[in-house]
């Protein structure tokens, strides 16, 4: 069922990636699980976006959206929409969520705005003191200027035990990891510093997910331990 919402505000995270804060009518309680997504409909055009915030019982959600050249929805959201403007959403949707009991290590592997559901999950884990094992957040992007929520993720890795935030850049050298996400998780897995096969959450563009899934299967990971959310 489609419900009416309105744009609360926009925060420009990078030049081409903005955070859209959306208010939902107080007449309907909007409940979702971290990792789920919504669909937006404007003039019969529909697109899906992961929710980057946590359930807060205030009927407000955050989306992280990248500007796509020539995209109809992208053009509307980046060039036309005004604060307070109404539109429709459907959701929450999807099964890309945490297990009820986290008794295994977890790898969050993402590129670009694929960090959105993992931001929601980490904020949820912290706020509600969810028990977990080790978490590896491996985030790949091109340049320092493209790093989304960099300071926020550093903060989580410093104040939450066994949360390892590993950003890697593919087009710019810096004093941390360089290259693609695949090199990072393969290195960690080859060290075999875990007692039980981890869970793997893959989120981002199709090519990254396709390659990651193939790599994990070649390393002996059961397909049931791999969850995917594909963008594009």
CATH superfamily of the largest domain: Nucleotide-binding domain of ferredoxin-NADP reductase (FNR) module
Which sequence of SSEs, written as H and E, runs from N to C?
Answer: EEEEEHEEHEHEEHEHE
Across the major sheet, the strand order is: 4-3-6-1-2-5
Cα-based radius of gyration, to the nearest Å = 18 Å
Number of helices: 5
Residue ranges: pLDDT <50 for 5 or more in a row? Answer: none
CATH architecture of the largest domain: 3-Layer(aba) Sandwich
Main sheet overview: 6 strands, antiparallel
End-to-end separation: 24 Å
Task: Describe, in short, the structure shown.
Helices cover 24% and strands 35% of the residues.
SSE diagram, text form:
Blueprint: E1 2-12, E2 17-24, E3 37-42, E4 45-50, E5 60-66, H1 72-80, E6 86-93, E7 106-111, H2 116-127, E8 135-141, H3 150-159, E9 163-169, E10 177-178, H4 181-191, E11 199-205, H5 206-218, E12 226-231
Parallel strand pairs: 7-8, 7-11, 8-9, 9-10, 11-12
Antiparallel strand pairs: 1-2, 1-6, 2-5, 3-4, 3-6
Task: Explain how this protein is built.
The chain has helices at 72-80, 116-127, 150-159, 181-191, 206-218; strands spanning 2-12, 17-24, 37-42, 45-50, 60-66, 86-93, 106-111, 135-141, 163-169, 177-178, 199-205, 226-231. The protein is an alpha/beta fold and 232 residues long. The protein has two domains: 2-93, Elongation Factor Tu (Ef-tu), domain 3; 106-231, Rossmann fold, CATH 3.40.50. The strands form two sheets. The protein has a six-stranded antiparallel beta sheet, covered by helices on one side. Strands 10-9-8-7-11-12 form a six-stranded parallel beta sheet, with helices on both faces. Helix 5 (206-218) links the parallel strand 11 and strand 12 (226-231). It is globular and about 50 Å long. The mean pLDDT is 94.
